Amino acid sequence: MDRAQKEQLVDELGQIFESSGVVVVSHYAGLTVAEMQDLRAKAREAGGSVRVAKNRLAKIALEGKPCASIADLLSGMTVLTYSEDPVAAAKVAQEYAKGNDKFVILGGAMGENALDVAGVEAVSKMPSREELISTIAGMLGAPASNIAGAIGAPASNIASILSTIEDKAAA
Q1: Taking the alpha carbons of 76, 81, 82, 85 in that order, is the dihedral positive or negative?
Q2: Same domain (yes/no): 107, 161
Q3: Are 79 and 51 in contact (CB under 8 A)?
C-alpha cells in the first residue's frame, strides 16, 4: 500500500468516524471468511457497515474526531462496525457476539461518548430509529381515533334508544 492509498484510507476512516451515529470496536481473531461475510451481510441489512482497517491508520484518522476516545481500543485484530443509526451497529455487533465466541466486543463510541462493553450492550437494547418513529406515529394517531370514537358513540347510542322505543311502541 503506497502513501496515496494510505492517505485515502485515512480520509475514508475519518469520514466514517465523523458521520457515524455509533462505532463499535471488536476483536475478530479466528473468524473465517464465511463468518466475516455473514457479519457484513447482517450489518448491511440493519443499515450499517463493517470495516477492517490497520490500527495505526485508524488512530491517525481518529485525531480531532468526536470519538477519538476509542483509539485506546485499537490493538490486535480489530474490526469496526458502524452505522448512522445510533443503535443499528450496536445491535448487530451484540447479536453476532452472542452467537460467535471468536467475535469479542471491546467497546465503542456514540458521538463524543465513549462506550465500554456494557455501554454497547445498553445501546443495543434501545429501540431503533424506525421503532421510535412508529411509536410516535401511533401516539399521534391515538387521540384522533379516540375523538372519532367519541363523536360516533352518541349517534349509535341515540339509534339504539330509538330502536328500543320503537320496539316498545310496536308491542
Answers
A1: negative
A2: no
A3: yes
Q: Which residues contact 51 (CB under 8 A, 6 or more apart)?
A: 13, 16, 79, 80, 82
Quick check: 114 pLDDT over 70?
yes
Q: Are residues 77 and 21 in the same domain?
A: yes
Instruction: Using alpha carbons, select from 29, 97, 12, 9 the residue that is nearest to residue 108.
Output: 97
The label of the residue with cell 485515512 reads 10
Domain of 88, CATH number, reads: 3.30.70.1730
- pTM to 2 decimal places: 0.71
What is the arithmetic mean of pLDDT over 39-58?
A: 91
Closest CA to 119 of 167, 56, 70, 46: 70
**How many structural domains are present in the chain?**
2
Cα separation, 61 vs 13, in Å, equals 6
Same domain, 77 and 110: yes
- Which residues are CB-neighbours of 116 under 8 A, at least 6 positions away? 107
